[in-house]
Amino acid sequence: MKNLLFPFLFTVFATTFQAQVSISPTNTQPAASAMLDVQSTNKGMLVPRMTTAQRTAIPNPAKGLMVFDNTTNSFWFHNGTAWAAVGGSDVPSSGIVLSETMVNQNLTNAGFSLLGKTQMVLTGTSNSNNFAWTGETSLVGAPSPRQGHSAIWTGTEMIVWGGFPATNTGGKYNPSTDTWTSTSTTNTPVGISGHTTIWTGTEMIVWGGGYPSQTNTGAKYNPTSNIWTAISTVNAPSARNGHTAVWTGTEMIVWGGGFPNPTNTGAKYNPTTDTWTQISVTNAPSARRSHVSVWTGTEMIIWGDGGNPGTNTGGRYNPINDTWTETNLSGAPSPPSEPQAIWTGTEMIVRSNPNPDNEYYKRYNPISNQWFDVTYFGNFYGATISWTGNQMIVGGGFGTYYEIMETQIYFPATDSWSRVSSSNNFLSRTYHSSVWTGNSLIVWGGGYPTGGAFNDGNILSPAELKPLYLFIKN
User: Which entry of 67, 168, 294, 445 is 20 to 30 Å from 28 by CA?
Assistant: First the structure.
């Protein structure tokens, strides 16, 4: 026993003499800056373990004294004045922290009391039943204030163009970087309001419009090169505004419109060949303007008339056969004022406004040629509607609550509505634009019901609401 103990005592004595201690299975020298250097690749170091009561009962704890508290399951050290949890922060009296649980023993032991409850908005998916305003778009480099403009989504950017007050300017907005880039004004179309805009997958096509002077000219805009290219007017439809345009995947179909004398004519435009082909008027809907149109994948559906007097008739156009089929009048909405429509993949949902105080929705199934009721929720005249892939978003307009941006979500699967909490910094508006990016809705521009135009925007995103609890330091 004496022979075994002597080398150990000698090692400790020698190390102590050097004023440093190294505990190492390989007799490694301690680091030059360390008084105690514990080295291992398969073991840890244990500090004294005790309960909170035992820790707080330590008499005259030295500054820097450390223990492991078995009650709170955390390391604690004395800062010279009080005990503090390692990794925590010195929260002053009346300071507030958040907890995922209402009962948090660690915070209670650290001198906190439950104050209340709040919610955190977490990014969700388009299947989410909850949405929230998640951020305003930058004003730096944004297009000038306007309403009645057009906006399309390219897959990475929103392109805003034209509008009133009359302008041939626009901008590309990138939500990933929250930045704007101006669109070129060289060779732009002349119909700077009342025009239509479609996205081909590589280019934006702007056609027609103008007030009171109307045009039948248009141009293709390439956002990559920032170049406008005029399109042919040979066999193009007559000059008009208030018309509609849809993209079939290979062609743009323009139909109806015209002021003060609307038409029921139209044409198909092929951007690859830069050619127009007139479409049949046999069995076509009656002449109209400010109607709605959607593309189903095989047909263009035309419905309604925003004129005075309006109509609740419509038709389905098959571009392959160049034929029209009348939409069913039975169960159709009343003649609308400024109707809107979206395509869900199986049905067209129409928003009808017979007058500013009377608004409702209907669903139209082109296969069965039938109309179906939609549960009424509220009146928001002048709002925009957008389709997420699962829900319809109705945003803006003016109605009962027009001072701030009012937004409703419609769920076709359950025929139910949900209201989105308003953004107090984002005023209500009409004749604005909204585009769905695939994971969020960008609302931009428009005008206030009592006058004036905006060039601000906001982003509405699917969100999950996570409950959080507020604790205050005593």
Answer: 67
270: Cβ contacts below 8 Å, ≥ 6 apart:
250, 251, 276, 277
Compute φ and ψ for 409, nearest 5 degrees: -115, 130
pTM for this model (two decimals): 0.73
Q: Which helix H or strand E contains 3, and what residues bound it?
A: helix 2-17
Q: What is the DSSP string of 191-233?
A: --SS-EEEE-SS-EEEE---SSS----EEEEETTTTEEEE---
CA dihedral for 236, 238, 239, 241, sign (positive or negative) = negative
Distance between CA atoms of 380 and 338, rounded to whole angstroms? 12
Tell me which residue of 410, 399, 407, 347 sits closest to 375, measured CA to CA: 410
Per-residue pLDDT of the chain (474 residues; tens, 9 = 90+): 444 433 443 344 334 445 677 788 887 888 888 888 888 888 888 889 999 999 999 999 999 899 999 988 888 889 888 888 886 556 777 888 888 888 888 888 878 899 988 766 565 555 556 788 878 999 999 999 999 999 999 999 999 999 988 899 999 999 999 999 999 999 999 878 899 999 999 999 999 998 878 999 999 999 999 999 999 999 999 999 999 999 999 999 999 999 889 999 999 999 999 999 999 999 999 999 999 999 999 999 999 987 666 789 999 999 999 999 999 999 998 888 778 999 999 999 998 875 555 567 899 999 999 999 998 766 666 789 999 999 999 887 765 445 556 788 999 999 999 888 766 557 778 889 999 999 899 999 998 766 789 999 999 888 766 678 898 888
Asked if 255 and 317 touch (Cβ cutoff 8 Å), the reply is yes
End-to-end Cα separation, the chain, in angstroms: 58
